[in-house]
Amino acid sequence: MEKKSHYDVIIIGAGAAGLMCAATAGARGKSVLIIDHSKKIGEKIRISGGGRANFTNIHTRPEAFLSKNKHFCKSALNQYTQDDFIALVKKHKIDFHEKTLGQLFCDKSAQQIIDMLVKECTDNNVQISMETEVSGIHQKDKEYAVKMNAGEFTSSSLVIATGGLSIPKIGATKFGYDIAKQFNLGIVTTAPALVPLTFQAALLERCKELSGLSVDAVVTYGKNSFREGLLFTHRGLSGPSILQISSYWQEGSEIEINLLPDVHLYDALKEKKNSAPKKDIKTVLSNYLPDRLAQSICDDQNIKDKIAELADKKLQVLANAINHWRIKPSGTEGYRTAEVTLGGVDTNELNSKTMECRKHEGLFFIGEVVDVTGHLGGYNFQWAWSSGYVAGQNV
Ligand SMILES: Cc1cc2nc3c(=O)[nH]c(=O)nc-3n(C[C@H](O)[C@H](O)[C@H](O)COP(=O)(O)OP(=O)(O)OC[C@H]3O[C@@H](n4cnc5c(N)ncnc54)[C@H](O)[C@@H]3O)c2cc1C
Fold it and tell me: Which protein residues are within 6 Å of ligand 1, measured from CB?
């Protein structure tokens, strides 16, 4: 595609936020070039939500986002809401459904979301250039000069939309953070988030035995609790509740898991001790938990007895191991499997109404590269759409 040498806007990163920003700026009549080093456009969208893209959440609210400044996301989320994105999806006749907890997924494929965004871009004369590497950026008078393999291009506005560090194998780089540093912007320490937790040998053995088993659980760390599925895997614990808490968990500390959130187990066991004293404890537990899990807990507690033979104290210990299971993760699976990156460009550096840098007119940061991280459930895409739209309105 023939490129001119100056654009109103150059966007680096053709992912969720970059494409939304490009389409929005293009619709305002701006000349826009969006570039990406990957071969394929919107790879993270393609693999998201198990291939069906959990593209937003109908309950999007600021409380579902982590950031050093918890108020920062409010303006963008208000300016471009989940309803606005849903309207766009409907305009493109993409069928979707709510899976659970307000999470909206495509009926068919995440590719539909990519096609929709690319169409919005091309309809608005956005130039898209894939497999394009940037070797340097500098400020030239009031313009930004971007050196690429295809030559040097200038723009009045430059938008950095290169995402976070998760899943390097599909193109994640630290490019956005490096540019932030180049322009003397603060960065909030990054860490993998929405990521499975790993455990030391003994617990890992139990997880392996139970691999594939999933239960409804409440997982708590500090003041934050999530009630969603918990999955035992051969590497540790995963499932939505664990991914959610991983965004809050601090290395070296414990999390608490309630494997039976609707039952006060100690009371239930005391009642059973009276009403069915001859029952094996494992049989009693199997009324509440999957067989394999009940067996594993009994083995771990070293109890095989009939319920009547267990002292109340022992019942309390057993109930605590289920209602208040406290464990210390040894770490996380890291960026290799994390869905998002916590931290990023410090929001103090940006105007929340526009996403423009306070120190550098015409320089914008949007999407995951910014220190705003959503809960699991479509919130991260909504942040990408909202921040991308807001920047697109102001470039
Ligand atoms: C497996 C997985 C599943 C997910 N599922 C969901 C989900 O269902 N719902 C949800 O809300 N969120 C989900 N997420 C999170 C969501 O994908 C991201 O938060 C979102 O894509 C961030 O958008 P972004 O535009 O900021 O970054 P990205 O979408 O990651 O886009 C960044 C782009 O920048 C490009 N880039 C990077 N470095 C350079 C460079 N040096 N030069 C040029 N280009 C560069 C990349 O190739 C990429 O195309 C998922 C993430 C993963 C990993």
Answer: 12-18, 36-38, 43-44, 47-49, 53-54, 134, 161-163, 166-167, 171, 173, 175, 339-340, 367-369, 378-381, 384
